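Example (one chain per record):
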Amino acid sequence: MARFCELGVEADVIIGKGIDMEELFNRRILIEKTVIQPTKYPGKNSSGLRMQMQVVLATFNTTPDQSGDYYQKDASGVAIGERRSCFTGSDILISAIQKAENQMPALNKARQERGEPLLSVYPIDTTIVKVGKCFQFT
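Predicted structure:
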């Protein structure tokens, strides 16, 4: 009989206490996971979607580690820092995440052909900035 942990099923949940987007502006963070779903507040944006992000308020090194990552990790390779949850209806941020997820297979195919290591979308090392009324990843 299989144990549940052997089935490779991951819960599609975001962990961490809620944090307002305003607290994340101009702060370097890691995004570990996103969940994009229909919004519970129709009419707030043009896509009709909302995105929940699991972010890590990580500590970053000035130089990358052997994996090319700048964030500090524990012995198992997991980012060290407080995990928080944030919702946004920003069509710009939602679209950027969707594009990144959709482009990853083609990007990795090209990297594989060149003999370069493959990339994964998550975790994303980024800063969210507010330009006027718009939010953007940098």
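Caption: Residues 12-137 form one domain.
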